[in-house]
Specification:
Shape: globular
Strand content: 5-15%
CATH topology: TIM Barrel
CATH superfamily: Aldolase class I
CATH class: Alpha Beta
Structural class: alpha/beta
CATH architecture: Alpha-Beta Barrel
Bound molecules: S-adenosylmethionine, FE2/S2 (inorganic) cluster
Low-confidence stretches: none
Radius of gyration: 19 Å
Distance between the termini: 51 Å
Mean pLDDT: 96
Strand order of the largest sheet: 2-3-4-5-6-7
Oligomer: single chain
Order of helices and strands: HHHEEHEHEHEHHEHEHHHEHE
């Protein structure tokens, strides 16, 4: 590793800031040594903000129906090879019940943009969850909605929302998301923040057509938007999509970016994602050591796990929730961290239990 890279990493560590051209240089000059130094520095900052805790959130993938067309995504509406499923309200409640018994105090409800789950149905579901478990923190991840819908969900008890911007480059975004609007995605993120959610955004690493300059744009966007959480994962091809023959992103570049994100904004909640664990059997451990502090084990019923096939080679499709919980705990402890089953709020967020 040259002295320029070492100096850039120190500058990023000391000031949480790099100019665009410096970030570009850092990304274009990846080396194992630079990644190691970045990870060490990122880990120091993570310990300063969140200690050695890793927050577990139970992920419920409640529907794989989606009316959108993201070219990389295995559950896009055009894919007629995927076997569609939708959990009922009762089935979702049962998943949460099981999660609660396993110790989870926060759940993430994720799905494709399923028109069956209207705003009214989502509100009814949220109210039912909050009535039964007022102390549980609910994260929604159900895509682009109106300001009014986001506001209703918030008032019904959702406190967090995950909506990746996917790529901050408008041209690249357009090429990958037919019939979708970059401006609307950005509008959604601004609305969510204004309403008062803890907001997670994020991007895919190694998207076909993506270069280092695009990744710099992602980092600059995050620096200015200041989300509470950022989820990133490598692009993984899914054979029945238009990008099914394209090469996957890498665990190395994803963990490198996790470290850069931790240094750019020390207080972020940063998940070691399922796609990182899917591309590399030790991907989640590597993510944690590079600065990540959240893991989202799966709570969905085992019968539907493999149907939420965003990409090929997804892990944890055959394990019961209890097994996932144990497996991930072992991995976290082996990496030198401690499992935290609490709500896992962002450190600046004043928890308001509704
Ligand atoms: N529909 C919601 C939305 O758009 O936010 C949530 C579900 S969406 C399937 C969840 C995330 O999966 C997306 O934000 C995207 O980043 C990721 N994803 C989809 N296909 C992927 C692929 N082939 N490789 C890596 N990540 C993928
Ligand atoms: Fe469903 Fe992209 S294919 S949101």
């Amino acid at each position: 590793m040259g002295t320029e890279i070492r100096d850039l990493i120190e500058k990023l560590y000391q000031t949480s800031l790099l100019e665009e051209k410096e970030l570009l240089y850092l990304l274009q000059n990846y080396s194992k040594e630079a990644a190691l130094l970045l990870a060490q520095r990122a880990n120091e900052i993570r310990l300063k903000h969140y200690g050695d805790k890793v927050y577990l959130r139970g992920l419920i993938e409640f529907s794989n129906y989606c009316h959108r067309h993201c070219k990389y995504c295995g559950i896009r509406s055009e894919n007629d090879k995927v076997s569609r499923y939708r959990l009922s309200e009762d089935e979702i409640i049962n998943c949460i019940d099981m999660g609660y018994q396993l110790g989870y105090r926060t759940v993430v409800l994720q799905g494709g943009e399923d028109i069956y789950y209207t705003d009214d149905r989502i509100v009814a579901l949220l109210e039912r969850i909050k009535e039964k478990w007022p102390q549980i923190a609910i994260t929604l991840s159900i895509g682009e909605k109106s300001y009014a819908a986001y506001k209703r969900f918030f008032e019904a008890g959702a406190e967090r929302y995950l909506l990746r911007h996917e790529t901050a480059c408008e041209t690249l975004y357009k090429s990958l998301h037919p019939h979708m609007s970059y401006d609307n995605r950005m509008r959604c993120l601004r609305d969510l923040k204004e309403i008062g959610y803890q907001v997670g955004t994020g991007f895919i690493v190694g998207l076909p057509g993506q270069n280092a300059q695009h990744l710099v744009e992602d980092l600059m966007f995050i620096k200015s938007f200041k989300p509470h959480m950022v989820g990133i994962g490598p692009f993984m091809p899914q054979k029945d999509t238009p990008l099914g023959n394209m090469p996957a992103g890498t665990a190395d570049m994803t963990t490198y970016l996790i470290s850069i994100l931790r240094l750019l904004q020390g207080d972020l909640l940063l998940p070691a994602t399922t796609s990182l664990g899917s591309i590399d059997p030790l991907g989640r451990e590597k993510g944690l050591k590079a600065g990540a502090n959240v893991v989202m084990p799966n709570l969905s019923p085992i019968e539907v796990r493999d149907k939420y096939a965003l990409y090929d080679g997804k892990i944890c499709t055959g394990d019961e929730a209890a097994q996932c919980r144990k497996c991930i705990e072992k991995r976290i402890e082996k990496s030198g961290y401690k499992v935290d089953m609490g709500r896992g709020d962002h450190k600046n967020f004043i928890a308001s239990i509704k």
